[in-house]
Amino acid sequence: MKPTPEHNERIATMTFASVYPHYVTKVEKKGRTEDELQQVIEWLTGFDKSKVITLINEKVTFKTFFQNAHLNPNAHLIKGVICGYRIEDIENTLTKQVRYLDKLVDELAKGRKMDKILRQ
Fold first, then answer.
1. Does the residue 117 lie in any domain?
2. Is 108 exposed, middle or buried (0-12, 13-18, 19+ CB in 10 A)?
3. Is 118 a domain residue?
4. DSSP 77
5. What is the mean pLDDT of each run of 10 residues along the chain (120 residues)?
6. Is residue 92 part of a domain?
7. Do 69 and 55 contact (CB within 8 A), yes or no?
8. Which residue, 16, 30, 43, 22, is CA-closest to 108?
9. In which domain, by residue range, is 97 found?
10. What are the C-alpha distances in Å from 24 to residues 50, 72, 86, 91, 92?
11. Which residues are CB-contacts of 42 (< 8 A; sequence separation ≥ 6)?
């Protein structure tokens, strides 16, 4: 599947605060912790827990969230299918970055070892 311009725009305007609780629920339901989720977010974006809380409180969009992020140089190693989209085939940079985060959360929830998730 290929993301449409409308899909890309919807992702760009979605707030991180609206999605974060779903990430927490997903990982906790599978026996992982919010601290592990935070570790994954920090690895990908450089945002520590206090910065993530600030961004949630400010209700920033994913566009703003990733504009302020310092993406990990190994983020390009995140591959596979998430939400029906093959990450390496996504052309829109922001959509690809959001799918990187989705994929990491999915791997965490599936019980993958942290060193594998963090591409170490």
1. no
2. buried
3. no
4. G
5. 84 96 97 97 98 97 97 96 91 96 97 94
6. yes
7. no
8. 30
9. 5-111
10. 16, 21, 23, 28, 26
11. 48, 49, 52
